[in-house]
Amino acid sequence: MSEPTPRQVLYALVAGGFFIVVLALVIWGGVSRLIPISWTITMGVLWLILALWSAFNWQQTFRVLLFSIGLFVFWAVETVLIVRS
């Protein structure tokens, strides 16, 4: 295995930041009862799957960053739709 490049490390840290933000938002939404518990559990499971995949494949920086940003956008859009309904 070769040593990671500085760009790979930076992208992995940015992706990790997005994962932490999404986790905090999911937990906050569930604790505050702003969103239904079923949505909190669904997002928690999805977060766990993507976070584990990203942890094992962190050197695939494009995919990891894409998944982490996509997870944030998915959470935001779906939460707005759930809260508005």
Notes on the structure:
This protein is mainly α and 85 residues long. The chain has one domain. Helix content is 82%, strand content 0%. It contains three helices and no strands. It has helices at 6-31, 37-56, 61-84. The longest helix has 26 residues, at 6-31. The radius of gyration is 14 Å and the shape is elongated.
Brief write-up:
The protein is an all-alpha fold and 85 residues long.
Keywords:
0% strand; elongated; 3 helices; single chain; mainly alpha; 85 residues
Ranges where pLDDT stays below 50 over 5 or more residues in a row are none
- Quote the beta fraction: under 5%
Largest sheet: none
Structural class comes to mainly alpha
- What's the pLDDT, averaged over the residues? 93
Bin the helical content: over 70%
The H-and-E topology, N to C, reads as HHH
What's the total count of β strands?
0
Helices and strands in order, then pairings?
Blueprint (H helix, E strand, L loop, with lengths): L5 H26 L5 H20 L4 H24 L1
Helix pairs in contact: 1-2, 1-3, 2-3
